[in-house]
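**Protein of interest**
===
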Amino acid sequence: MRKLHFLVATLMESMPLIAKYGLTRTGKLRLVADPLFSEFCDMTITGVGKENGRNTAANLKDVVCVNYGFAGSKQHDLGDLICVTKVQGCDLTLPSLGKKTAEIKCLDEPSQDYIDDVLFDMESQGICEGLHPDLSLVVFKVISDNSKGMLFHLPGWQNIVHDRIDAMDTLLRNALESGQLT
């Protein structure tokens, strides 16, 4: 079974994963002693933008790539965990894990113009384009902003994010155990 390799754009997005998996910096951030994840998983903070995502993804080998991060949305509620099933501009088929799924559009700069019924981020297309075709990609986003406001303005938003990490973990474990992710 391939190990998981999380790609996140920012340190803020990485913090709940560090807490969940007990990651420590050893050149890469690393999870140890979890046999389901073949004793460890890695995480790379890519930096913001398509080019950073593309360059980081191009260096991955023999892993299941998980792009986790925050995204804007017109129709989803703040704090929703969404499994992305289509990245606009990419032909890669993504698995549908969980009940809430959506398409994502990758922007070149931050925007709060929620005119399309898709999610918005700034890295997913670059990651999709840079990833070797033999590798699996899963994309999970937590809705950080919509026309009603920003997740980070809600009391207890950190607890919401940690709950979504737990839900994502369950979906990933189930997909690994069932062979849906290889």
